[in-house]
Design the sequence.
């Protein structure tokens, strides 16, 4: 999204906007706006007062930056700002669609472009204008050379659009998170490359390899791209796509982030007048975004617009250079194609959007360069249109309508769904139309006020409604079906409230006269929220046709009201988080004794294709079509981009039955006479007339419509026109990947190692939103305090999410390396995270990603690194003490809103506690690095013996909190074998008090802890007892000197002295790490309990149908749902919940380049021979050798199969596996490092252990005889 400037050169205005993205090695993004304005071709030079004006402007700029930004807010949320001050008070205000007020040329634009190394380009642009008009760009070049563009290209103006959102001509742009996530989708027709080829008479070059040749022989030619307007648009195809744009860098705001010195230079060259900033003649600005999200404004450039296509002739190739942060970037741009877009209705502006190959400092990539020109004395060959008035609910209605009991279709209040419900509102809006093509049968609505009056006049109804609400929210026993059935019987036996009865009769006589016995009516329910964009509720409530006489009318109205509480309707509202007691209107409309009736969809109801209109129709009343009682005719109408209609396929149904009105009232089914069942029930003229009506209504409502119609004597009557709700349906893939984070390049390394121990599989939405964001924030904050990154970003950078799975971004994590800080070490960081160093991950990549620091800066950063971690143990102890009493749920919360506000208020505590835990955890990595440095004598060549010796040295750590879990569990198990119930209860209670906040996937908010569900622990105790493994030999304690003597790695005298000082601290650090993690998990448990309590309250209040759904909403979405009941959010949560098991099954490679690769895809190509013995190499983390049978387990649910003495082979372990350690004789994990959970606990229990034994669970099976060598790091399969 960007803002561009009008630039004048000579008597022409143009701007130049350059977007460069190159991804292969440097992974740098350049995105800037470089503009020049020149009068009469005399370019501005330095004048005599240049330097004085330069200094004065800089002082002025600094002063503006310090002003209070909130003092000059205007009524529309914007501020009286400019350079040096923010234009908007918040990103939320800037990202929402803006009111188009003031001058006629006011615009509100969103722009997205994308490209990749395979040669794909995509441009989307939507510019809102006044008068329900918009300008759209849509061009797409696929890697195989196919090209698509908007069928109106090169024109851009479209009409009859939604005037309150970014949606026009099938292109929709929706802000999901301000400045972070946007969803861009398109569903419509695009012109294809084949059409362009036929029109241009050109030959397509192979995969566009010759695109840089002369215009007459390439597809970048003006004719080849159809950059000239023609009525013959050739072949068009239906195209549907959607994607989510995620930010991977900070926002560059041209108000405050531009280089002040470049701006001062531009201002100092000007003649200073009162209109200086409105008529700035020479201005250059831009920025460089490094892949680590650091953004730097461009400080200088030699780009000269006076040499770049000044006469509407932008060059295909040009070079320039610029400087940012002291580095010089040399850029070479070569055009591939250049779509043109004409703006304004008079085509007064033209934009060249040039697909380009980019070379920056020798690194190749791709990008877009944009030139725009003002066209004077221009003419537009496209016929101009004007938008029709929008049919929408009025903001204000007369006060008498608000309190009315009945409203005629013609009254303003009948156009408001909150007064008459969805169906009545749509009929009120349709009645406003004056058309010769159709009529709206007369009628009126009983308002929601009538419904409420009736209920209040019968207290027994209020009691029954309360009972239904209590049963629905599990407050009292009973079934909804029985309660609704009883209530329906009570409701229909009530007499209509006197005032409602009187007003209804009066309106009937007013509209239809006193002889009502001769007129038949349709009585239809019209619930609040029905027939809207979010919820349909079609068929949930009753409709009565052919009603005659006042008595039957009043009876039908009562039954319509009662159907609001039918079990299907109640369940529907409950499943969408809506109140059980919901307002309801009733539509009373004169019946049309139709010859033919049916439904028209103005787009394909399944695919949303606007080029395919669909009609379902049958003889008689439309009830036979909507009820499915007979097979109707299905007719498709092919619709071109310019709304030309041609009848497509006619599928004649077996229309053996039709519904007709009975003379005595009501309806009946009759056989279709003659050969009518074999012929289409609609003539071609009526089909095309219906299609034209559908197009007209689309223009009026600005969206696709589902239209009910009835035809009598050739006259079309419209009975309903609701929005097509299936048009925006998302695929399973879309839902599963909606929270995927952004990578700046396909070369970034990401891994499940380390984070996979806490989160081995996909996370729930709430956990992803809370835990992942907080952990990423804490990581960024740690490195910022260490001086290795300049700022903390408000999006995932150190972590990465894909399919709701958590990964670590190794490129970003390596900001702590020997080139950025004195204590950094890339190899040791890899070892801590991956358990290995990777040969394919070179230091040069890290330097390109993060840059290089001077020696002095590294010293300063090293000092910051140490100081930021000093006192972390004391802070952890304070948090531990704080958590002894801190809780959120120990109150009788009166409402979900109140509890949510408290959770929201306490979120900073959640983040601060995790930050403290991560800070103290880093000490263990520091001391482990020191040990490895001593053993390797400062070299980065590490052998298996080095790993083995470090593991042995760390085998005697102090107070390892998680290692205490099995021992504490064994003590608690005494209650099953002791005669002392008092002691047994005390042991178990003490275990839950100390370790009850732990569990498998303990950071997952959806997963309940041991103290919440103690039966999880009981089953483990039973397994331990059955295996008789409660008593194990005590671990032999060895001193520091004894450990040093046992080392096999030769060390110097000074090396041993350093080890004697370092080793005790390294051992304590491991214990502190586990303690800090336990404290953070305890804080997580507080919030876990709070969210479960909130879920319970929301179910009791009818806002959610089941508690688990809360965990499939983000924290912000929960707030939105509490603020305004939104059925769409509940439906989305249900989709996520349904797909969550599928996400849990997905496994990925431990290390990936770019997007993660599923593990099964990787192993499918494995060529190994499983019939012979083989050896798997891992990283030794606990010494010892053991032979035994392997027990291969991939999930904790299989842990009950573990037998005493087996060697456990698993993908990972976390604290949830700890209770099983007394059973096993050795441990093998596919991921981990020296300080991973499995390694730490195995050393405490003296179990041989290796980690990072990749694919071990795939290569072995339970029962295999193996030898585990925890000293050499091998696992050997015996034949």
Sequence:
């Amino acid at each position: 999204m960007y803002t561009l400037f009008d630039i004048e050169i000579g008597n022409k205005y143009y701007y130049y906007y350059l977007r460069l993205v190159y991804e292969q090695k440097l992974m740098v993004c350049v995105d800037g706006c470089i503009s020049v304005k020149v009068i009469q071709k005399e370019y501005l030079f330095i004048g005599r007062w240049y330097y004085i004006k330069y200094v004065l402007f800089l002082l002025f700029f600094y002063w503006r930056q310090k002003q209070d930004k909130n003092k000059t807010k205007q009524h529309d949320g914007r501020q009286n700002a400019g350079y040096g001050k923010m234009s908007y008070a918040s990103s939320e205000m800037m990202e929402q669609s803006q009111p188009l007020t003031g001058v006629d040329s006011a615009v509100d634009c969103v722009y997205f472009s994308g490209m990749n190394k395979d040669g794909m380009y995509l441009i989307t642009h939507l510019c809102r204008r006044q008068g329900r008009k918009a300008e759209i760009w849509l061009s797409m070049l696929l890697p195989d050379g196919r090209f698509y563009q908007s069928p109106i290209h090169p024109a851009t103006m479209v009409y009859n659009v939604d005037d309150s959102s970014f949606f026009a001509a099938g292109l929709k742009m929706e802000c999901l998170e301000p400045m972070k996530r946007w969803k861009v989708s398109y569903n419509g027709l695009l012109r294809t490359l084949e059409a362009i080829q036929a029109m241009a008479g050109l030959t397509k070059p192979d995969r566009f390899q010759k695109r840089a040749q002369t215009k007459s022989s390439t597809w970048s030619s003006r004719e080849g791209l159809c950059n000239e307007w023609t009525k013959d648009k050739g072949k068009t195809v239906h195209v549907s796509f959607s994607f989510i744009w995620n930010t991977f860098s900070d926002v560059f705001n041209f108000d405050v982030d531009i280089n002040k010195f470049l701006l001062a230079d531009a201002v100092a060259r000007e003649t200073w007048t009162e209109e200086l900033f409105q008529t700035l003649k020479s201005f250059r600005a831009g920025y460089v975004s490094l892949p680590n999200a650091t953004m730097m404004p461009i400080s200088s450039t030699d780009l000269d617009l006076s040499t770049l296509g000044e006469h509407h002739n932008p060059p295909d190739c040009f070079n320039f250079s610029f400087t940012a942060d002291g580095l010089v970037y040399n850029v070479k741009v070569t055009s591939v194609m250049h779509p043109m877009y004409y703006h304004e209705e008079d085509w007064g502006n033209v934009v060249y959007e040039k697909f380009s190959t980019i070379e920056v400092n020798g690194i190749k990539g791709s990008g877009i360069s944009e030139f725009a020109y003002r066209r004077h004395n221009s003419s537009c060959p496209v016929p101009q249109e004007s938008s029709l008035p929008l049919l929408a609910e009025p903001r204000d209605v007369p006060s008498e309508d608000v309190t009315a009991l009945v409203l005629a279709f013609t009254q303003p209040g009948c156009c408001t769904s909150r007064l008459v419900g969805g169906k009545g509102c749509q009929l009120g809006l349709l009645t406003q139309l004056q058309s010769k093509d159709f009529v709206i049968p007369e009628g009126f609505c009983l308002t929601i006020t009538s419904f409420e009056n009736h209920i209040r006049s019968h207290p027994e109804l209020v009691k029954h409604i309360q009972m239904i609400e209590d049963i629905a929210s599990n407050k009292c026993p009973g079934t909804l079906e029985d309660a609704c059935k009883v209530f329906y019987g009570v409701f229909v036996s009530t007499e209509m409230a006197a005032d409602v009865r009187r007003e209804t009769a009066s309106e009937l006589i007013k509209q239809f006269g006193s002889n009502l016995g001769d007129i038949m009516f349709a009585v239809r329910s019209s619930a609040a929220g029905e027939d809207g964009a979010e919820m349909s509720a079609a068929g949930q409530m009753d409709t009565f046709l052919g009603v005659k006489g006042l008595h039957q009318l009043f009876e039908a109205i009562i039954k319509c009201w009662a159907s609001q509480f039918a079990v299907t309707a109640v369940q529907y509202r409950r499943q969408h988080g809506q109140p059980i007691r919901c307002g309801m209107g009733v539509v009373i409309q004169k019946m049309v004794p139709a010859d033919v009736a049916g439904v028209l969809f103005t787009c394909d109801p399944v695919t949303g294709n606007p080029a395919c209109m669909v009609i379902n129709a049958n003889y008689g009343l439309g009830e036979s079509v909507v009820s499915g009682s007979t097979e109707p005719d299905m007719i498709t109408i092919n619709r071109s981009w310019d709304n030309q209609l041609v009848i497509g396929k006619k599928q004649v149904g077996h229309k053996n039955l039709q519904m007709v009105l009975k003379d005595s009232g009501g309806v009946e089914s009759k056989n279709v006479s003659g050969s009518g069942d074999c012929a289409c029930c609609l003539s071609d003229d009526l089909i095309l007339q219906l299609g034209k009506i559908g197009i007209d209504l689309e223009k009026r409502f600005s969206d696709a419509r589902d239209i009910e119609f009835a035809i009598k004597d050739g006259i079309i009557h419209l009975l309903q026109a609701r929005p097509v709700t299936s048009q925006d349906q998302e695929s399973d893939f879309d839902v599963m990947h909606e929270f995927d984070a952004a990578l700046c390049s396909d070369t970034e390394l990401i891994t499940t190692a380390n984070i996979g121990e806490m989160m081995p599989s996909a996370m729930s939405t709430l956990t992803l939103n809370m835990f992942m964001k907080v952990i990423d924030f804490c990581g960024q904050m740690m490195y910022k305090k260490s001086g290795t990154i300049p700022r903390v970003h408000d999006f995932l950078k150190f972590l990465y999410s894909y399919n709701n799975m958590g990964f670590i971004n190794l490129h970003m994590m390596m900001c702590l390396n020997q080139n950025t800080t004195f204590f950094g070490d890339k190899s040791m960081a890899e070892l801590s995270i991956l358990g290995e160093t990777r040969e394919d991950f070179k230091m040069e990549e890290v330097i390109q990603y993060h840059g290089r620091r001077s020696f002095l800066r590294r010293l300063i950063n090293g000092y910051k690194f140490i100081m930021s971690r000093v006192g972390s143990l004391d802070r952890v102890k304070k948090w531990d003490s704080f958590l002894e009493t801190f809780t959120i749920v120990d109150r009788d919360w009166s409402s979900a809103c109140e509890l949510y506000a408290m959770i929201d208020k306490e979120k900073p505590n959640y983040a601060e506690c995790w930050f403290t835990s991560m800070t103290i955890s880093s000490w263990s990595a520091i001391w482990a690095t020191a040990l490895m440095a001593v053993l390797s004598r400062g070299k980065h060549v590490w052998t298996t013996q080095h790993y083995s010796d470090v593991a042995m040295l760390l085998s005697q750590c102090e107070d390892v909190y998680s290692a205490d879990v099995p021992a504490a569990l064994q003590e608690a198990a005494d209650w099953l074998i002791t005669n002392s119930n008092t002691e047994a209860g005390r042991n178990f209670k003490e275990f839950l008090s100390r370790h009850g906040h732990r569990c498998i996937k303990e950071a997952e908010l959806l997963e309940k802890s041991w103290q919440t569900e103690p039966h999880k622990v009981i089953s483990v105790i039973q397994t331990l007892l059955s295996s008789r493994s409660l008593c194990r030999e005590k671990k032999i304690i060895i001193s520091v000197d004894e450990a040093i003597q046992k080392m096999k790695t030769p060390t110097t005298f000074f090396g041993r002295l350093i080890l004697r000082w370092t080793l005790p601290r390294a051992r304590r650090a491991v214990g502190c790490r586990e303690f800090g993690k336990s404290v953070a998990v305890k804080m997580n448990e507080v919030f876990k309990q709070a969210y479960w309590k909130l879920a319970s309250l929301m179910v009791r209040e009818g806002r959610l149908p089941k508690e688990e759904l809360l965990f499939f909403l983000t924290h912000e979405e929960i707030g939105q749902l509490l603020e305004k009941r939104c059925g769409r959010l509940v439906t989305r949560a249900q989709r996520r919940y349904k797909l969550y098991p599928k996400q849990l099954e997905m496994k990925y490679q431990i290390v990936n380049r770019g997007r993660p690769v599923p593990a099964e895809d990787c192993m499918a190509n494995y060529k190994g021979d499983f019939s012979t013995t083989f050896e798997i190499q891992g990283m030794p983390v606990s010494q010892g050798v053991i032979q035994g049978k392997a027990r291969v387990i991939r999930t904790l649910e299989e842990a009950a199969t573990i037998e005493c003495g087996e060697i456990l082979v698993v993908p990972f372990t976390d604290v949830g596996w700890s209770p099983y350690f007394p059973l096993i004789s050795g441990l093998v994990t596919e991921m981990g490092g020296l300080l991973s959970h499995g390694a730490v606990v195995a050393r405490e229990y003296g179990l041989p252990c290796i980690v990072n034994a990749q694919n071990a669970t795939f290569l072995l099976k339970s029962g295999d005889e193996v030898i585990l060598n925890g000293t050499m790091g091998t696992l050997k399969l015996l034949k």
